[in-house]
Amino acid sequence: MVEVISGGLASLPPNAAAVVGTWVAALLTLATLTFIFENNPVFRIGQYLLVGTASGYAAATAWNSVLWPRLLLLLRDPSAHWVYGLFFLLGLGLVARGLGSASFLGELPLALLFGVGAALALGGAVSGSLLPQIKASLISINPESHGGGLLGWTHAIDALLTVLCTITALSVFHFTVSREGVANALTHGLMGALSRVGRQVIMIVFGALLAGAFLAFFAILKSRLDFLVHDWISLIAHTGF
Amino acid sequence: MIVCPSCQTQNADDAQSCQSCDEPLLFRACPSCGATNPVGNRFCRRCFAELVVSQEEGPPSEEVAERTADKGAPESPGPSVLFIAEDLGTPEEPHESPPADRYRDEGAGWGRPEPLHLAPPDDVQDEPEPEQPEAEEQAALSTELVADPLEGLGEVIPLEAAVSLPHRAAPHAAERADDAELGEARLFWEIAEAPAPLREAVQVVAPSARGGMPALARVALNLLVLLAALAAVLNVELRTSGRQAAAPARQAVANVAELLDGLPQDAVVLLSFDYSPAYSGEIDLLATSVVQHLAARSVRTVAMSTQATGIGIAARVFNQVADGRPGWRYGEAYALLGYLPDREAGLRTLSRSLDAAFKTDHVQSRSLGELPITQGLATLGDIDQVIVFADDVHSVRLWIEQVESQSAINLHGLVTTRIEPQLIPYLQSGQLKTLLGAAYAGPEYASWLAAHSEAEQVRLAPLAGSGGWGSYSVPFLILLAVAVVTNLVYLSQGRADRRPG
Q1: DSSP assignment of B326-360, as one string?
Q2: What span, in angstroms and rounded, lies between the C-alpha atoms of B449 and B305?
Q3: pTM, two decimal places
Q4: B368 touches B354 (CB < 8 A)
Q5: A61, A75, A114, A204: which to substitute to probe chain B, counting the most B Cβ within 10 Å?
Q6: pLDDT confidence band for B446 (50 / 70 / 90)
Q7: Mutate which of B417, B427, B444, B471 to disrupt the A interface (most A C-beta within 10 Å)?
Q8: Is B75:B138 a contact under the CB 8 Å cutoff?
């Protein structure tokens, strides 16, 4: 059976794989674009194929790139790579999580995964995002500190706008202000004015995000149309199929 | 028929409580304070005096009932008084009971209860005069012990009518639904009771009260988007050579290209393909341009991915570039390190040791020490530039938090245009050396390569999809027009909605 298939594949022309691949890609592209009319079985076939092949490819990659090389090291020299055996046991315990009576075996690897992951994520967020971003927000609005001249003023205005937009955007989420007393009433009025400006700032940001998303999806649409016009139709025009 | 004093509901003659509001329909006047109490109460709810006649005392005598009917209030409090609303409106007491309309018209939520027609139980009416002297003695004793505080006031104040009023606000009568509400209720019932549709695409869309965008405007906008896509495919580009140099996006792309162009040949660049196939259409062009540029400069290039499918995309991009360059060999000029699982821990491991993160390479399954290109690479400190192609913010943030903050590397983010604005703070803080959106940076980078290939004798393969798509191209201008028209229609629609009437 394998010999028959191998012989059949060997007898194909050298560019057969490219031709078949182009046709499959073109048909799946058209199937995906049929969603413009409505959700239909053709579109869903393409959707399921994408999810299925991506999952299968991910599993194969994890086995080939991660599991198999380390398992080989363990089998070749167990004394030197015994730690991989421990990791494999922990992995098997994770698999046992769905076996009912043996599910307690998965508690230790789960605790390790969540504990180490949370510690690394928290430490990284503090040292990599929180502190550097706070430091970066402390910017000077003095034009001289930006070199002076027109460029310095430009940077100073930009810095001032950054500070104002940050404060006004944060004030939008300040909901609990007491109105009793003069000081609280003044604070309430100030926060109300800031939040009204901050709401417009947030709307502008949302508009920019939406425009970016629209541009990204339009680029993907353009690349697919490019493929259909330049690859698929050119293939048909040159080879006849 | 008994009319409830609270909600005016008509109840059957033998009803003990209202069928609508469950209020008791049979009251017993307190012998101490005169407050009305449900007939089942043993103690008065106002003064806590005892109301219920014990078995030894027997039911109220006919004499007591007659006195109640004659004067509306007991001459003597007695053990308890059965209060029958019907008796309040009897012709024998017109001077004490105000007309029903007087109470019905006064105040909001208050009204004199309809006369209750409740015949006293037969056993009470027909019960003969108690013959046992003990009962009479007990009644006389209780009369002496419990004095009626309202005694004597009944002739000047209509006490019977006053105590018959309910002691709380009567609930508002239910308003009758109009035709619109009935129609909505009927529609809701039909939707709730209708069988579930088999087709997923079927949706119930409620008609908007606003006018929305006119149908003609919708069609025009769709046509504009299609026109923009066709213009991009057909390589329609404006002749704006004078202004192109001033475009900030083009300048940012040129800065990255010049940075890579100035790298020495022994430099090492790490490319991380952290995006899914769904975004290949946007990022592939930029990634291919960068790889092609590095290949043309003979810069050592290694690639990896923190997504399982990303390493496949990297293999495709490198194979595409290598096909046109016979001298650009795997293992010597470039290598695919592979897939790095468990992002946080994996990236920490990578920053500490490349050999610990990748046991073998992705293509030939050889250890990194066996590949000529990776010999001498121990940590990320040995790598000059790290470029991350990503389609989500989290991937880039992990590189910043787990790698850049731990070891000083030159990190560049070449991402989808969708997530680019969210990463600008990292660019301003200096944690990202470069930030580019692939939708515009891909064509710009390809154009930069094409413009510089002749001068520097760099042989470049033509990149598919690189034409007709730039910062000043027709598609961009059409999309800009779409955005402007959409906002104008929205604003005009909003102003029309705010107009009174």
Answers
A1: TT--BTTTEEEEEE--SHHHHHHHHHH-HHHH-SS
A2: 25
A3: 0.63
A4: yes
A5: A61
A6: confident
A7: B417
A8: no
